[in-house]
Amino acid sequence: MSTDGHSGIVHWRRSMWNGARCEPVLVTLCPDGLQVRDRSLGTVLQADPRAVTCHLTRLGTLVLTVDGRRYALVGRGASLSPVPSAEQQRALEDAGRGSPEPAAAGGAVDQLFNGGAAALMRDWYTRLTAAGAQLNQRA
Question: How many Cα neighbours within 13 Å face the side chain of 49?
């Protein structure tokens, strides 16, 4: 992958109901690819951004679809969710291009009740669509 891009840690909702299955993932978006890595830096997803379909829900979940598989990403995990691993933190620091905060701050309600998680996911949605991801118009 190219070195020009953006990285950040978000959470992958592997289960709608089990907060312990909402795990941190390191997302890296470069002009030539999107990569999502788990806590041990194993590849969860790697694709050309133009092969990704994305949808942002009203509650701030970014749903990515690649090769028929869906990945629900959220800006913060549940109270039961594991914390980002030291490996993920180091990889983010080594990339030198990550940002813990979105480019645009969220609204007061998002900041108060959700720690700005919806704004973070809107930022990723904007970056992905600018990189060529297709929009999913389903509600």
Answer: 22
Q: State pLDDT tens for residues 31-46.
A: 889 999 999 999 999 9
Edge to edge, the sheet with strand 22-30 lists 43-47, 33-37, 22-30, 6-13, 69-74, 62-66, 53-56, 134-135
Q: What distance in Å separates the CA atoms of residue 56 and residue 64, rounded to the nearest whole number?
A: 9
pTM exceeding the 0.85 threshold for the entire prediction: no
Helix, strand, or coil here: 74? strand
CA distance 62 to 73: 5
- Token readout for 2 is 């190219």
Q: What span, in angstroms and rounded, lies between the C-alpha atoms of 101 and 137?
A: 27
Start-to-end CA span in the chain (Å): 32
Q: How many CB atoms lie within 10 A of CB 111?
A: 14
